[in-house]
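ESCALATION

Customer reports they have been waiting on this structure for their group meeting. Please prioritize. Original submission:
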Amino acid sequence: MGNFKYMARDMDGQSIEGILFAESEQILSEKLSEMDLILIEARIIKDLESASISFGKIKRRDIILFTNHLATSVEAGVPVISAISDYAAETENIRFAKMIRDIERQVMAGTTLSESFSKHPKAFSSLYISVVATGEATGNLDKVLNDLVGFLEWQEELLAQIRQASIYPAFLVSMIIGVIIVMMTITLPKFIPVLEGFGVELPAPTRILIKVSNFFQDNLLLMFFGFIVFIIVYIISNKNETGRHFWDTVKLKLPLLGKLQKKIILSKFAHYFSMLYSSGIGVLESFSILQDIVGNEVLKRAIHRCSLDIEQGSSIYDALVKEKIFPPLVLRMIQVGESTGKLDTSLHKVSQYYDKEVPQTISKIFAAFEPILIIVMGGVVLFIALSIFLPIYKLTSAMGANR
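Update from on-call: job pushed to the front of the queue and completed.
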């Protein structure tokens, strides 16, 4: 008895992989026969992680469209299995259609919708699965699916805002780095012998520029490998909790960007907590799920400490107020929500606040970055120009004085 990962063939002879729960391999074969599938091989799976089947990377937009279709269908009284089947037939994403077909087969075999989603953790997050499970248990599946649509669209919009706002600053940074490397390694080495051959004492900016250019020429390869090593160390260290905590702490302390990073993770916390709590999931269970999905080790550890305090009888407000990461506004609204018994309303208001605050902060920070980067780029070009033309000016002045 358990989950079986199977390979079967349909009536057209196409190979199909999937996961089904069955009491035995014989019963699995019978279930597949009812779906017009012929079992080829099967093996029992002991844990959920190894039970998952990869259908490639699934985009959030596909999940949004599927969830919206499911919510609309369920709200209209269409059976879940029919809604899933209809979407699998309509979607143009072949990989996603295969995954939906696998979910359809599991639901047909008696697996709940949330359990079938849990077999695909790369597509459906633990929050998504928990909310759907709650909706199934309470009979409010249409409501939670509609809430999930709004939540997923918020995630998509937030990422789009960050990407759009960061394109121009990223372009300017790349331009500055590119100009410096080209000037120091290709252009200036051709001018330096000329400048040194003038026979006059070179100005301080020119001497500094020559030293910097020589440093780049002598160490460019070393700098490149150093950058590669840094990236490798960053990737490897991010695979353990200690490393993630270090880098997440650094990100929160960065000038300007640290402020934005903090607001983004708090926005996620507010939205995630609001989504889970309003779906009927308890505070402790919500905090348990939040630890795995907030995406920041500093906040994750803070949530874990809060959950321990709440488990020992502390209020949510008293637990959160101990952590310096939560701002007064969030704490006050949660305190009001707890005292009035309307925590879901308060959490929703916190989410709405960050929906306005995060885009404004993104706009302000990246708007500030643009003139700063332009000034830096202009300063670099001006310094290089002065370093080249000052010796020429000094030489012409000396020649004029000797006439």
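Sent to customer with the following note: The CA atoms of residues 334 and 346 lie 6 Å apart.
Escalation resolved.
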